[in-house]
Structures are given as C-alpha cells and as structure tokens.
Amino acid sequence: MSVKPVKKPVPKSLPILLTVGDLLAIPMPNGLHAATWVLTLQEPYRDFRGKLVKGSVYFVVLDGHWQSLPTAAQLAKARIAKSRASHHANDDWKGCFWGPIPSDFVVTGTKAPTKAVLAFVAEASGTMVFQNAEHLRLELFKHWRLKHDRAAVEEEWRSAALAPAARIAERKAKLTLPEMLKEKPFAHWRAHWPVSVVRRARAIFTEATKALIELDGGTKRQKTSILKGIATQINALYDETGCIETGEASEVIARVEQLATLVGLSNDDEALTGHRDW
To answer: How distant is the alpha carbon of residue 233 from its chain centre?
Structure first.
C-alpha cells in the first residue's frame, strides 16, 4: 500500500480541499495531535428546497496521540481506533462531519484505502455524526481525557449534575412575587415557536403576578381565581397556535405552582391547572 508524505494546511475558506486517502492530523487543546484517515468526500449540493447543503467528509479515526505533528509514515502504520460508543460487531471508529476544515488541521500524507475499508465507511450503521470539524476535534479531546484523565472528567460530570439543583435551591430561597415579576421565562421556546407566542405566554404570567401583588393578601377564592385564569388563558393560546407540548406544559404548570406556593396555595391533584387542554 503506497504512502505519500504531504504537509499542507487546509485553507479555511474552502468548503472541501481534501482528497480520498488523506491522513489528517488534528491538534487538540492539550497540544497533542489526533488523526483521521479520509475515505469519502461528498461535494456541497442544493436540496429540493434549494437550500445549500455543505460538503461532508467521511473518515475513520486512527489509534494514537502524537506530541508533535505526526508524519505520513506514523499515521500509515496506525490502526483504526475503537469507538467506545459503538454497539456493533465491528467497533472501528468511523464518522462524518460537514463544512470547512479548520486552518490548523494538517494533511501529512495520503494512504490508498482498501476496498474493505471503503465498504465499511459506506455502511451508514455505526457512523458517528459530527456537526462540523470543530465538533470532531472536541470529541477526540474528550476521548483522550476519558482514557488519560478520567477522574477529573468524572468530577466535572458530578459538579455539572449538582449545579442545576444548586441554582434551583438558591432561586427558591430568594423567590418572591416581585422577583418572579422581573423574570422573563420561556425564552428557549423561541427555538420552536414564534416570538409572539413567547410574548403572550409571558404576558399571561405577568398579568397574573401583578394581580397577586396588588391583591396584597386577599382571600383564597380570589387567589385561586387568578391562578386558574393562567391555565384558562394558556388554553386559548394553545387553541390558536398549538404551541403547548409536553415540555412547555411542564414549565407552565411548574410556574403556576411557584406562584401558588408564594401565596399559600397548592396545585395538588392539579387543583389550579386541571382544566387545561394541553
């Protein structure tokens, strides 16, 4: 099998400037290099809607990490790495990504692929999909850390798992009706629903929160009426837009329950939200 040494940075400006068989060295944040073997390239194209789909690169990850830029000979001898995420009989690590190549990725040489490895990459099953080349770089670095720095990674996981609970506890300790009035909930709904929907949902809660503040105590019936009115108005929003799915419903109910707790009420058995249509 022929191996041709090459050292050429791949310009960032071009969507694809690789050839099949390229041995691609990838610098990681810790100064080491990982590497892939490029096996299939797909040119950019326009889909049926006329939208441009970026070119894609299909590859296998090579087993090893190098302190300096690896040579073509080093990469040509490297075995295909094993994927810790694969559940297939052949757990060789293959993947694909879309878009341009970062300028610090370096093609150090080329190695002619065999029919067997081309057939393996052509089979979609087991292919790890990356959003872009930077996503691949990050995953390769994570793979290295899990192998060589696992204790620190697991501690980061534990800290990340505890952080949301700590934030929730801190918010709950400081929560008041005026503080809830300052909040702007449901911002992430904008990824799925029009801004007008988010604004209306916020307005419903803003009006109810103001009404509870202005009530300044009031009777249980008055407070119950205000809180039940939230679900009634969200019903109307749902009828018009269909915007309340499982995730949104959980958030609406949770916020009603937070308001209820602050005025001495409870939503047990959905006493305040049971008439909802969503």
So the answer is: 32
What is the C-alpha to C-alpha distance for residues 245 and 25, in angstroms, rounded to an integer? 45
Look at residues 101, 112, 57, 62 and name the one whose alpha carbon lies nearest to residue 83.
62
pLDDT tens string 123-140 = 988 899 998 999 999 999
Residues 83 and 12: their CA atoms lie apart, in Å, by: 28
More confident residue, 216 or 144: 144
pTM across the whole model: 0.54
**N- to C-terminal Cα distance for the chain?**
63
Give the separation between CA 175 and CA 169, rounded to whole angstroms: 10
The whole-angstrom separation of Cα 278 and Cα 245 is 7
Radius of gyration of the chain (CA): 27
For the chain, give me the number of helices (H) and strands (E)? 8, 9
Q: What is the three-class DSSP state of 24?
A: strand
* Integer Cα distance of 194 and 149 in angstroms: 44
| Residue 248 confidence (pLDDT) above 70 | yes
